[in-house]
Design brief:
- This protein is α+β, with helices and mostly antiparallel strands.
- It folds into two domains: 80 residues, Roll (PH-domain like); 270 residues, no CATH class.
- Helix content is 53%, strand content 15%.
- The strands form three sheets. A six-stranded mixed beta sheet has the order 2-1-8-7-6-9.
- Helix 6 crosses helix 8.
- It is rod-shaped.
Length: 377
């Protein structure tokens, strides 16, 4: 029967006629060859039998599995070709464990030290780039008086912090309730959040929270975590799409969620301390969180999922904030508060328009009937 012979010197196979004779294999490839039974090694892989012999350690004789069984399979001790499969499985398991350890332990552990070791100039340049991108996405509100009041509030709170960055707070137009800090000291507050805040102290609590993020370098930690997961994606799945990429992305999001919550609680406490240090009331944080939790009289923030997506439970945050609340001066004067409220048109819309905006953000349809009753704010 026919087989393929590889002499180990070239990749060219030779077709040979193989027979079992004199207790061994005989075949002719350039010259007559005899491989005795003693020392003959057979590895079965799929539908093939790969044979070798110590007399020619680099040579291989390949037969179909069926031909080998008919030819001499009952006369030789065979070894199934599973070692390679086991090595592959073990290697994949090791890679999986390494990925898990890196995402859930390595990235969070090293993100903090890396953030603190990041040069101020580097973070500032990175922040300027992020700020430019955010400026292209979210248009700056035009009310200069309100913008000036927000900026001065940020400067006042930053004066109580230990940050080398110049904190720059501004209002932007965006279709969601949110406030977020960027690397390098910029803080963006959306017009929807300004609209939902009922008092200047609530707005000041949000700004103080973001200033605390800047002081603690939490934003830079998030950048390093995202960078680490991104590099991992490229290394493991080549930056492509598919189940492998999705698994790593989900793992990274879970890590951000777990460690993000710790940073949020730290920023809550530190934000209240900044307010107290500036002589301002820190009593606005608790009612803001309570409404977000849906437990206050006003449930307008119950659907603002964008703001709480990676934050701790708002009810528990509200209780902690209430425990740490201290009285103080109002964060803004009545005229400053009015200017901030109107800076992005936050205070200019009638109740029907505001209700339509809220329903639009939820994806619902606003009532259009003239007889519809709209709750007055």
């Amino acid at each position: 029967m026919q087989g393929r012979f590889y002499d180990g010197l070239s990749a060219r196979p030779l077709t040979v006629e193989v027979e079992w004779a004199d207790d061994g294999l005989r075949f002719e490839a350039d010259e007559a060859r005899f491989w005795p039974r003693d020392g003959l090694k057979v590895v079965r892989e799929g539908d093939q039998a790969r044979l070798s012999h110590p007399s020619e350690p680099d040579a291989r004789l390949v037969l179909s599995d069926a031909d080998w069984t008919m030819l001499g399979g009952s006369f030789c001790v065979e070894k199934r070709g599973r070692a390679r499969e086991f090595r592959l499985v073990a290697g994949l398991a090791a890679v999986g464990l390494s990925v898990t350890a890196f995402v859930f332990w390595g990235v969070p552990v090293f993100a903090g030290p890396l953030a603190r070791a990041t040069p101020i100039e580097m973070e500032q340049k990175m922040g300027d780039s992020f700020d430019a991108q955010m400026g292209a996405m979210f248009r700056r509100c035009e009310g200069e008086a309100g913008q000036g009041a927000l900026y001065e509030l940020g400067v006042r709170l930053a004066g109580q912090s230990d940050t080398p960055f110049i904190v720059r707070v501004r209002a932007v137009q965006a279709p969601f309730v949110n406030a977020f800090a960027l690397p390098g000291g910029a803080v963006l507050v959306t017009d929807d959040l300004i609209r939902e805040a009922e008092t200047p102290d609530e707005l000041a609590a949000v700004v103080a929270h973001e200033v605390a993020h800047i002081e603690q370098r939490h934003v830079m930690q998030a950048v390093w975590r995202s960078l680490g997961v991104g590099l991992l994606l490229d290394a493991v799945v080549g930056g492509g799409t598919g189940a492998g990429q999705q698994a790593v992305l989900l793992a990274g999001q879970a890590t951000d969620l777990r460690y993000g919550r710790e940073a949020e609680l730290e920023a809550d406490a530190r934000g209240q301390a900044l307010l107290v240090g500036a002589g301002l009331s820190s009593q606005g944080m608790a009612p803001f969180f309570e409404r977000m939790h849906g437990e206050g009289e006003d449930e307008r923030l119950a659907t603002a999922a964008e703001f709480v997506s990676t934050h701790p439970d708002s009810g528990r945050r509200a209780q902690r904030a209430r425990d740490g609340a201290r009285p103080g001066a109002a964060a803004l004067s009545p005229s400053e508060w009015a200017a901030v409220r109107t800076s992005c048109g936050a205070g200019s819309k009638d109740p029907v328009t505001r209700l339509k905006d809220r329903l639009r953000r939820r994806g619902d349809k606003a009532p259009v009937d003239q007889g519809d009753q709209v709750r007055q704010d």
